[in-house]
Each structure stands twice: as structure tokens, then as C-alpha cells.
Amino acid sequence: MTRAAILALALFAGFGAQAAEGPAVPAQKWSFKAPFGVYDRAELQRGYQVVSEICASCHTVSLLRYRNLAEIGFSAAEVKAIAAAEKVQDGPNDKGEMFERTALPHDPFKKPFANEQAARAAFNGAYPPDLSLMAKARPNGPDYLHALMTGYGDAPSSVKMGEGLHYNKFFPGGQIAMPPPLADGQVNYTDGTKATVDRMSRDVTVFLMWTAEPRLEDRHRLGLKVILFLVVLTGFFIVVKRKVWASLH
Ligand code: HEC
User: Fold this and answer.
1) Which residues line ligand 1 (CB under 6 A)?
2) What percent of the chain has pLDDT over 90?
3) Nearest to 61 by CA among 193, 214, 172
């Protein structure tokens, strides 16, 4: 076989493998994606509502502390109330026993399972991962998260589904242990927004992008300052260059 033929075959096999991975993840528009983009506060707050009312029954967002919610526009009183609605384990006390208390703003976001083994036992061995950094842990994270949330459907007849698995065309391999987490109208958004699956997927994605990169806006602001600085510096150099060369002409 010639080298070209081998290369062509390898390429073909490569394409074949990619096709088995499922369709490409559609690109979405995100307010934070532009060079100086920012997070939309309303999306962030709605995203928190989705995480706390739906995803938190299986996933934790361990890097989030309740007090961090002040950074996305919740007031100090709201943060206190959000934390106070949760119970956390604390201790040991003087008798060496663990005890439950209401959560405080400095507590980390709750964990739905006592440990990884308990979670795996509940899902046939699969593990609902910590969502804190998920938006950064997958290629095209935000687009992928949105696609995953909206990618459930009936399996094609050619696919043999494993036990306890759900067909999702955007999950590598097409079969995921997570049941479809969103359904239209599943949350009552406090700001009155209609809770469609698409809307909730976007909001939860924006929120998880923020937990993965809370300093994104600072980074963008710094970028703007650096560019302004370079513009001014360039102007300055042009003036100096003209002055220096004027005497040499
Ligand atoms: C009923 C429990 C349950 C709920 C509710 C749930 N998940 Fe999951 N999730 C799982 C399990 C189990 C897995 C592991 C799936 C696997 O490995 O097959 C998972 C996996 C994931 C993954 C990882 C996918 C990957 O590429 O590895 C993401 C992201 C995710 N869930 C996001 C969410 C979001 C966002 C919500 C809320 C809207 C949510 N989940 C609600 C159980 C749940």
C-alpha cells in the first residue's frame, strides 16, 4: 500500500470515530463570550435557582460558598436566607458527635450524597460530578452544557440502550446515566421569566460558567485597560518619532 493510501485510510478511520461521538455541539451566543463581555446578572440568578432547585439533588458545586452569591447580585439578607434554608453537618461537638445545623453564608454549597460510593450506588455505578468547574472541563464547555441539557430524545432503533441509561446525542457514546434533568415549567422563576428547557439550560450554563471563572469580568476589564494603554503609548511613540525624525530630514 502506498503511503498516501495509508494516510487516506487513517483519515477515514478518524472521521469514522468522530461520527460515532455524535453530532457537533451547536455554538450558542453568550453575553460573556465577547472580548469585553460580562455576565448577565438576571441569567446568573436564574441559573442559581435551577442549580439549587434541580441539579443540587444529585450534584454539588463544592467551590461555591453561599456568601459568593452576593457577587451575582443577591443582597446580604437574601444570601442569609438562601443559606438558612439548607442543613449542613457540623461537629464533632463536646461529646464527639456530629450534628446538623442550619447553613451559614460561609458554608460551602451542600453535598447531596454522603460520599462518592453512595452516589455511585444510586446510579448503577455512574457518578454525578461536582459542577463547580464543569464549564471549563469540557471542550466548548458552555455550548456543550447547553447541548447536553437539550440533547435528550428517543434512541434510534439501531442503538441498544444499557440498563438505567438515557439516550442523549451530545453525550460521548450517546448513553448517559443522568435522567433528563429539565422539563418545561419545572421551576417558577422568581423574576417571572418563562421556564422553558432552552431558557433553563442557558441560565444554568451561565451560572456554571461563573462558578468556573468568577473573575472573567475583571480579566476583560483589565484587557480593555491594557488596550487603551497601548493605544495611548502608540500615539506617544508616533509623536516622539516625528519629533526625532523632523530634525534629521
Ligand atoms: C437525578 C440526578 C441528577 C440530576 C437531577 C442532575 N444530574 Fe447531572 N448527572 C447525573 C449523573 C448520574 C451523571 C453521570 C452521568 C454518566 O456518567 O453517565 C451526571 C452528569 C452530569 C454532567 C457531566 C456530563 C459529562 O460530560 O461528563 C453534567 C455537566 C451534568 N450532569 C449537569 C447537570 C445539570 C446542569 C443539572 C441540573 C439542571 C443536572 N446535571 C441534574 C445525575 C443528575
Assistant:
1) 50, 54-55, 57-59, 123, 126-129, 131, 134, 138, 145, 148, 176-179, 181-182, 204
2) 86
3) 214
Interval between CA 59 and ligand 1 midpoint (Å)? 7
Residue whose grid cell is 455524535: 22
Q: Which atom of ligand 1 is nearest to the CA of 208?
A: 35
Centre of ligand 1 from the C-alpha of residue 129, in Å: 7
Distance (Å) of CA 82 to CA 42, 70, 85, 180, 223: 17, 11, 6, 26, 34
> Do 44 and 54 contact (CB within 8 A), yes or no?
no
C-alpha to C-alpha distance for 47 and 40, rounded to whole angstroms: 10
Q: How far is residue 25 from each of residues 39, 173, 194, 243, measured CA to CA in Å? A: 22, 14, 25, 55
* AA letter at 157: S
Q: What is the pLDDT of residues 60-111, one digit of tens each?
A: 999 999 999 999 999 999 999 999 999 988 999 999 999 999 999 999 999 9
Q: What's the grid cell of residue 159?
A: 442503538
